[in-house]
Amino acid sequence: MKKQKVLHYDAFSSVAHKGNPAGVVLNADHLNEDSMQSIAKAVGFNETVFVVKSDNADYRLRYFTPGHKINLCGHATIGSMYCMKSRGFIGEAVNEIKIETNVGVLPIRFETREDNLFVTMKQDEPQFMPFQGSMDALARSMGILSDEIDGTLPIVYGSTGAWTLLVHIKSLASFREMNPNNREFPDILKEKPRTSVHPFCILNDGDQVGMHARHFSSPYSGTVEDAVTGTASGAMGAYYLTYLNKEIDNIDFIVEQGQEINKDGKVYVSVKRNHHGMDVYVSGTGVFIQELDVTYE
Length: 297
Prior knowledge:
Protein name: Phenazine biosynthesis protein PhzF family
Keywords: Isomerase
GO molecular function, one term: isomerase activity
CATH class of the largest domain: Alpha Beta
Number of strands: 19
Radius of gyration: 18 Å
Order of helices and strands: EEHEEEHEEEEHEEHHEEEEHEEEE
Pfam family, one: PhzC-PhzF
Family: Belongs to the PhzF family.
């Protein structure tokens, strides 16, 4: 058995033990993929991120759930970049860097908002794919009735770096009743059986748009629910411009997530149309919690 120091950061909140926990391993070049997977399983968070050297960018980030590696993770990116900037690994005068991920090289921006360090990450080009499964079975797997799903809007798989099923829910009240049975997801999500499920609703306050969401993990990931989800929040912004308002060129809004499991967090989303598709950005802050000494094989 071996030991590895892992830093626990909560992302998308400045309040300890809110937002979404991420394991952060700095200077991880000595670890192979099997070791990274073993460490992520031992940590047990939805994602653990490993920061390694890159020939193509300032750093390369590698992401693992307890069950498998993934291409991109929003909260682990925000948490690790907040860690490196706040600890001085990224210089005080440096406001932008680039990270290498499995979806390509992405820009990262740092700024101060109301005395808090905020990290903004660009995500991958949005992609959507129709869901053709049973809406009744999908509703049952989330622990709600099928008429709580808004059938006037499409249920689609969406990705800005990680695929999830976007399900528009009619009422905010439904989210408190949700009790997912993740084991049922692969049989329902026939087009992408390893995908997570992301129910969300629109919160309109005058001209101001907001969204509320929960995120239920694929059973293959080794977790049940993701507290505050960066990549899915970016996909929700692209969904808004694709399916809800095709007339506007950009949208900025806040996603609130985690309230039902006492992990309140906020993701700041900005999406802009460009000549070939959309540019998707998410922003958030973070907070250091503790240093973990993890034993792994």
